[in-house]
Amino acid sequence: MTAGRQELAIRELGKRYSAGTFGHFLMFMTAWLFSPSALPFSYTIPATLFAALIPLRVYARHSAIQRPSARRRNWTLLAIGSFGCNLLWGVCVACVQGSSGAGLDSVVFAFFTCGISIGTVTALAPSPWLQRGALAFMLTPAMLSTVCGYGLPVFAVIHAIFLAYTFVMSSMATREFWQTVASNEQLRQQEIELRHAQKLESVGRLAAGLAHEINTPVQFISDSCAFLADGLGELEAGIAGYRELVEKIATGRVETDVALGHADQVEATHDLAYLRENLPAAAERAMVGLARVAEIVRATREFSRNATTKSPQNLNAALESTLVICHHETGAVADVVTDLGTIPLVNCHGGELNQVFLNIIVNAAHAIGEVKHTSERGTIAIRTWAPEDGWVKVSIRDTGVGIPDEIIDKVFDPFFTTKPVGQGSGQGLAIARSIVVGKHGGKLEVQSKPGLGTTFTIALPA
Questions:
Q1: What would the pLDDT profile of 166-208 be if each residue is shown by its tens digit?
Q2: Angle 104-123/71-100 helices, nearest 10 degrees?
Q3: What's the first-to-final CA gap in the chain, in angstroms?
Q4: Buried b vs exposed e over 372-409: b needs ≥16 C-beta within 10 Å?
Q5: 235-281: per-residue pLDDT in tens?
Q6: I want to staple 253 with a disulfide (CB 3.0 to 4.6 A). Which of 74, 104, 248, 391 is the partner?
Q7: Residue 385 · residue 375 · CB < 8 Å
Q8: Following CA atoms 302, 307, 310, 312 in sequence, which dihedral angle do they give, to the nearest 10 degrees?
């Protein structure tokens, strides 16, 4: 078993250890209740041993879940806890069957032994050696006591048959567990591929829009810079004309009253008055365009950020970056109204939540674009707030066509879409729900009225 599989098995065993610990305690107390005098010695002895083993099992559970990488220590703790409790049960059963023969007490303890053995098969399924070792410690003491002349042979036969049966069951349980792990890993990989496909689809759809968004400011930057270049050339020529005029005045070649006429001629030839009026505006337009390009580049960089671990994120800033990215989708059909409240930072995968916001906002724009027979622009209203209930919430409301009641429960299903063939993959909202609910423990709800619009509400733990 590889190190990764060992850590997975240890973590899963830790999760199951609580049920096993509670099961042992419950079975022991029930046996004590039904057969208070079954043991040939006081119940205080096994009770004390159980009391010592239970804290060790609790610690083993904590260590397995919190530090699965400490494999040697965890296997040792898990083995001591499992083998110890099962051996204690096996010794008690051997003592009861050796002292009471075929009496009711032997039957009661044999029944509980079967129950604990089945529980062991299930609880220790991730580790075949731990599973079979615990079963052997449970069932062999009674068989050995019979061989030594204590107890009835029939019980030895029953225990041997049940041990063989549980060994077969343990192999099946282990195989099913790892098959389930493999299936879950395959599903997780498929989900990752779907997310990548959705992101690639979004990138492809937005690439043309981003090119247009950047091209617009670049165009008037180019026009402004061309005007500035021409204007600077005229200014340089005008300055040269003034310098020549000053030299003529200094050498007495031009009278003062004639010089004014020459100055007016330089002004008119190079259109200096027009340049003085419009060059500052051209420079300002170029600066505005550069600021717009910088904003788009910044938003694109923040939107595409893909951290592998969660970190505190400002959802308001994330929404603003997403709106810049999808402006070409929303700007043509709707006015975007934002009400971004004061909210705390949210520990999350920022890049994936950006994808969620993008999917919902673009869907809202498309829904508004589907409204027919009207020239009015729609509205996309985005609001964030932090109610005093431990959540941070984001609502995205549109005035689009809405979702019919008969399909609203299907909008989060994978590959379900109401868009025409070739215009939607049906993965966007399914992946959005997987990110919000599955990866962040949040909520994603939808409310809609046909003809009036739709509201998606995202709630994330604060």
A1: 888 888 988 888 888 888 788 777 767 766 666 666 666 666 6
A2: 160
A3: 39
A4: eeeeeebbbbbbbebeeeebbbbbbbbbbbbbeeeeee
A5: 888 888 888 877 777 777 777 667 777 787 878 888 888 888 888 88
A6: 248
A7: no
A8: -30
